[in-house]
Amino acid sequence: RERFRKVARAGCLVLLIAAGCAVLWGVLELRKHQRRDAADRTLNGEGVISPSWRVSGDCRPRTTAERSRDEAVADLLHHFDHQRVNPGLGYKEQYFAWRWRIAGSSGSCSPSPEHYRRLAGVLVPLGWPKLPTDRSDLELTRRLPPSPALARNLAELAFASHPLPFGPLEYDNRPFARIMLAEQGRFARPWGRRALTEIAPDTKLGTSAATLAAATVPQQAAPRIAAALTAMTQEADRRRKRIEGLKGGPHIVYQLRDGERLFELADALATAGPAAEPHAEPLGQTF
Amino acid sequence: TYLCAAADRIGGRAAVAASRASFC
């Protein structure tokens, strides 16, 4: 009887340890899953980035009051140190980065190009934009005159080895920096080859690399972007067949994230210009 | 609209496919 009691006790202990291990494993798996979700939200959670041609449009000339306000904000240049991050610099960036034309024809035009030239003259030699904490500085680069130095500064951010989180949801800023680098035109060419190797259909980093490659090495980029589009449509087709096999009838086969990657790839293909035409078949299939 | 605008920018067959799509 004593022996039976010992065996039972040992058995209970083993069961208890096994149950403890199972609970621990479950908790660790759950935390791993949560970490993976959070990382995915940081890297791919942001909506589609609007390219410049979608942001700008008709505008009305600036009024005298608005021009005088522009002068006043531009004067902050003389009162704040540009070597360090400070509220004066941050406010000025936000002011001049504002999407003046977002309201369409009723919106005011941007401040005078002269203000942007002066800003570029001060900020770009300082290595700006550096580690952005919000979008204003990257939004502002869209309005400054393109230059080799600005392209170099943007490339530092666009190809950083780690995510550059901004905003309360901590979205990664690198894809936006890649789009801004693409808008530097010929000055972005030194990063074209690298972008070409990073084209991917399923991540925001991959689709923004596609835009950069299309803007810099369009002949090589267009077939690769078309291949990425084909990979997406084929995957959607497989999913459709699988769902139809189970339930029958037509189903939505693109999940929201896939749809956004699809828009980004389509826009990247269009960025390649005339080089995109012979490779546009996958886009036609998407329709 | 992203897809339609991209197809219009590319032109050719892509633009034709877009013109046939009900959502463009």
How much of the residues of chain B is beta strand, in percent? under 5%
Low-pLDDT sequence parts of chain B: none
Low-confidence stretches of chain A: none
Report the count of strand segments of chain A: 2
Structural class of chain B: mainly alpha
Main sheet overview of chain A: 2 strands, antiparallel
Which range does the strand content of chain A fall in?
under 5%
Assign the structural class of chain A, choosing from mainly alpha, mainly beta, alpha/beta, alpha+beta, or little secondary structure: mainly alpha
Largest sheet of chain B: none
Task: Work out the helicity level of chain B.
Answer: over 70%
Tally the helices of chain B: 2
Rg of chain B, alpha carbons:
7 Å
Tell me the span between the first and last alpha carbons of chain A: 77 Å
Mean pLDDT reading of chain A: 86
Helix content of chain A: 55-70%
Number-wise, the strands of chain B total: 0
Elements of chain B, N to C (H/E): HH
Architecture blueprint of SSEs:
The complex is a heterodimer of chains A (287) and B (24).
Chain A: H1 2-44, H2 52-55, H3 64-79, H4 87-97, H5 113-123, H6 136-141, H7 148-158, E1 165-166, E2 171-172, H8 174-182, H9 192-197, H10 204-216, H11 218-247, H12 256-271, H13 281-286
Antiparallel strand pairs in A: 1-2
Helix pairs in contact in A: 3-4, 7-8, 8-10, 10-11, 10-12, 11-12
Chain B: H1 2-10, H2 12-20
Helix pairs in contact in B: 1-2
